[in-house]
Design brief:
about 160 residues, alpha/beta, 5-stranded mixed sheet, two-stranded parallel ribbon, 4 helices, 7 strands, about 25% helix
C-alpha cells in the first residue's frame, strides 16, 4: 500500500486575479449599454397635473416632447416669469412648433412616421389657452397624435 503524506506547510493558495480584467470590462460594458443619458435639460417648471385614467406610451423613441411651464428660478431674471414653451434644449415661440415637428418627423424612419406622437408636458398651472394654441400649431404640422403627460392620482383642489 501507498503512503499518504499530510501537506501541512502549504496554507491556502493565493486567489487568482487573471479573470479580474474580464469581469471589470463585462460590468463596464453592461452599465454602458443599460444607462440612459438625459437627452434634454428641462428649463421650465414641470409639475404635471393629476389624472385618473392614464396609459403608458408604447414606443418612446417615436415620442416628441413639448415642455410648457414657467422658467426655472435661475432663468427668470433673463426670460421672465410668464409660461414658456421649450423644444429640445431651448425656449421657442408658438410659430416655431410647426417646423420643429416637421424636423422631428423627418428624423424618424419613414415607415414609423405615422406612429409619431407629440407629448405635451405642461405644468399644472399653465393656462389652457396656451395649450390650445400649441394644439393649433400641431394641427398645422399635421401632428394629430397628441398625448398629455400626467401623473396618476385623484384630482384635488378647486376646479
Amino acid at each position: 500500500m501507498g503512503k499518504f503524506k499530510k501537506n501541512s506547510g502549504g496554507g491556502t493558495p493565493a486567489i487568482s486575479t487573471a479573470s479580474l480584467p474580464d469581469i471589470v470590462f463585462m460590468l463596464l460594458f453592461f452599465f454602458m449599454v443599460t444607462t440612459v443619458m438625459r437627452e434634454v435639460t428641462i428649463l421650465v417648471d414641470n409639475q404635471k397635473p393629476f389624472a385618473t385614467e392614464i396609459k403608458k406610451l408604447e414606443k418612446k423613441n417615436l415620442v416628441t416632447y413639448i415642455y410648457v411651464g414657467k422658467p426655472k428660478k435661475n432663468l427668470q431674471a433673463q426670460v421672465g416669469t410668464e409660461p414658456r414653451i421649450q423644444l429640445n434644449d431651448a425656449f421657442a415661440r408658438l410659430g416655431e412648433i410647426q417646423q420643429y415637428v416637421i424636423e422631428e418627423r423627418n428624423a424618424i424612419n419613414e415607415a414609423e412616421r405615422p406612429l409619431m406622437t407629440v407629448s405635451i408636458k405642461a405644468d399644472e398651472k399653465v393656462k389652457m389657452g396656451l395649450v390650445s394654441d400649441i394644439k393649433q400649431e400641431l394641427r398645422k404640422a399635421e401632428a394629430l397624435k397628441i398625448n398629455y403627460s400626467t401623473r396618476k392620482g385623484e384630482v384635488f383642489g378647486e376646479l
